[in-house]
């Protein structure tokens, strides 16, 4: 078991300097979450730190600790998820591994204490009380509407999937060994207190999860205790461990994470194939054959000069045309993200009101939940595949499977997996779609299409998918 020091040390000088302004400003209680826009939601999450300062000084660079001492915010955080919620949730059919992990850090290693099948609340509580085990609850936004609202807005804000896990740890115990993650992490302390230690990364902006041994990580760079209402952020690759102090009945926190596999490297892997494919249509250099027996050679160093020349040519083309397509990353995001959380206004996801006509004025709605891509025609795989325009959206996504990974694969076998929802249009519709996306209000008859019939058909198709509303 990692050392836990009986008396928690004061925050290091570095963390004190970083958080000094936050603590001073936090003397005035920050407001609760603002759902007016994705930007206002994120602003209220990191309050009193300002958005510009956060991205200039902390994002992907160093940890941020915001200690608030605000009873109202503490009560709100506690409402997001409590230990007492587990009893009711277990009645809904939770399963070990899929929904819940029971674990404990023993001698620097994670020991999983899961049983088989469905989770019994009585067994879970017994393991929690007697074995000092941590309860790790996967993706609570599937059950808790307030977390759904928060994460849906954050997905709009970041343009990246946002997952979460709840960790409930009894006093004098630690659930996980020192490790680092491949995601940007925001931690909200909900109940009790948690003693945290952060360490200098061994891999900056890591691309994968990894456990680190105590003798490799050295002394903590930051050490502090989180209390209800407090917020902690740290970049991917930050080594961390946390325990619940003695005398505190339990600690509950939610970890909200984002930006997994969302780097420039990932974007290039997604976009470069399309750039090569398009360039090869126009430039014979990319259609000439590779040397004989190149694929049989152990050392292909002689070909690097030619490849370097081709890559420079691709870079020049990109600089001149400014066209770069990212289809797979866009589709993965839109297919797997949360649907809008509309509360009592769920009728917005059902077509209604006036049908769009040629003289109608229309407005795009759910802009943050829809994307436009240009791809080869998916419905004519055996023929010469023309390029088509696809409009994908997340309005019909299933909250119940959000970020569940392997669970989606199992659902696929049963025919209930996440599907791509959207529309398919000829390439000639692209300018009209861009017109709708880039203007507040558009008159149907002014859409950039040749015939009035095409204009009405485009508006009606978007209206049927609830992507536009008729203003007049």
Between the first and last Cα atoms, what is the distance in angstroms? 67 Å
Number of strands: 19
* Structural class by SSE content: alpha+beta
Query: Helix fraction?
Result: 25-40%
* Strand order in the largest sheet: 1-11-7-13-5-4-2-3
* Total number of helices: 14
Radius of gyration: 26 Å
Coarse morphology: globular
- What percentage of the residues does DSSP assign to strands (E)? 15-25%
Largest sheet: 8 strands, antiparallel
- The low-pLDDT segments are 1-31, 408-417
Mean pLDDT: 89
Walk me through the structure.
It comes from Apteryx owenii (Little spotted kiwi). One of its GO terms (cellular component) is nucleolus. InterPro entries: JmjC_dom (IPR003347), NO66-like (IPR039994), ROXA-like_wH (IPR046799). Pfam families: JmjC_2, WHD_ROXA. Its EC number is 1.14.11.-. The chain has 472 residues and is an alpha+beta fold. The chain is 32% helix and 21% strand. It is built from 14 helices and 19 strands. The protein has helices spanning 13-25, 38-46, 51-57, 71-80, 85-90, 121-130, 145-158, 214-217, 264-282, 304-321, 328-336, 406-413, 430-438, 452-464; strands at 64-66, 100-106, 109-112, 134-138, 162-170, 179-180, 184-191, 194-199, 210-211, 222-226, 231-234, 239-243, 250-258, 361-364, 370-376, 387-393, 421-426, 442-443, 468-470. An 8-stranded antiparallel sheet has the order 1-11-7-13-5-4-2-3. A hairpin with a 2-residue loop joins strand 2 and strand 3. The longest helix has 19 residues, at 264-282. It starts with 12 loop residues before the first helix and ends with a strand. 32% of the residues are buried. The model is unreliable at 1-31 and 408-417 (pLDDT under 50).
């Amino acid at each position: 078991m990692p050392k836990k020091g009986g008396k928690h040390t004061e925050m290091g000088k570095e963390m004190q300097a970083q958080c000094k302004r936050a603590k001073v400003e936090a003397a005035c209680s920050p407001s609760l979450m603002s759902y007016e826009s994705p930007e206002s939601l994120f602003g209220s999450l990191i309050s009193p730190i300002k958005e510009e300062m956060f991205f200039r000084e902390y994002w992907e660079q160093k940890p941020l600790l915001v200690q608030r001492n605000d009873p109202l915010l503490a009560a709100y955080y506690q409402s997001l998820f409590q230990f007492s919620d587990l009893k009711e949730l277990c009645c809904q059919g939770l399963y070990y591994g899929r929904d819940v992990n029971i674990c404990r850090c023993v001698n620097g290693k994670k020991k999983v204490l899961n049983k088989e099948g469905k989770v019994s609340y009585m067994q879970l509580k017994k393991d929690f009380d007697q074995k000092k085990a941590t309860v790790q609850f996967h993706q609570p936004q599937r059950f808790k509407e307030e977390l759904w609202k928060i994460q849906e807005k954050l997905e709009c804000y970041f343009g990246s999937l946002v997952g979460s896990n709840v960790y409930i740890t009894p006093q004098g115990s630690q659930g996980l060994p020192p490790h680092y993650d491949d995601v940007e992490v925001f931690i909200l302390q909900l109940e009790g207190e948690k003693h945290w230690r952060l360490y200098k990364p061994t891999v900056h902006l890591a691309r994968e999860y990894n456990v680190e041994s105590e003798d490799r990580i050295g002394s903590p760079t930051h050490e502090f205790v989180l209390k209800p209402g407090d917020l902690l952020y740290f970049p991917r690759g930050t080594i961390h461990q946390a325990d619940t102090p003695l005398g505190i009945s339990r600690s509950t926190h939610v970890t909200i994470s984002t930006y997994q596999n969302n780097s420039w490297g990932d974007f290039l892997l997604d976009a470069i194939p399309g750039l090569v494919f398009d360039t090869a249509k126009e430039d014979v250099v990319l259609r000439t054959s590779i040397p004989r027996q190149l694929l049989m050679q152990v050392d292909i160093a002689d070909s690097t000069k030619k490849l370097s020349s081709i890559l420079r040519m691709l870079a020049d083309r990109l600089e001149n045309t400014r066209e770069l397509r990212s289809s797979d990353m866009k589709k993965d995001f839109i297919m797997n993200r949360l649907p809008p959380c509309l509360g009592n206004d769920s009728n917005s996801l059902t077509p209604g009101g006036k049908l769009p006509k040629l003289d109608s004025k229309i407005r795009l709605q759910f802009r943050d939940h829809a994307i436009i891509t240009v791809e080869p025609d998916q419905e004519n795989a055996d023929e010469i595949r023309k390029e088509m325009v696809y409009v994908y959206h997340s309005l019909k996504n299933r909250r119940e499977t959000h970020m569940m990974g392997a669970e989606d694969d199992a659902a696929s076998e049963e025919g209930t997996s996440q599907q791509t929802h959207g529309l398919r249009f000829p390439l000639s519709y692209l300018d009209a779609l861009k017109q709708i996306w880039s203007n507040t209000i558009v008159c149907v008859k002014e859409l950039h299409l040749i015939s009035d019939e095409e204009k009405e058909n485009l508006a009606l198709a978007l209206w049927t998918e609830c992507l536009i509303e008729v203003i007049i």
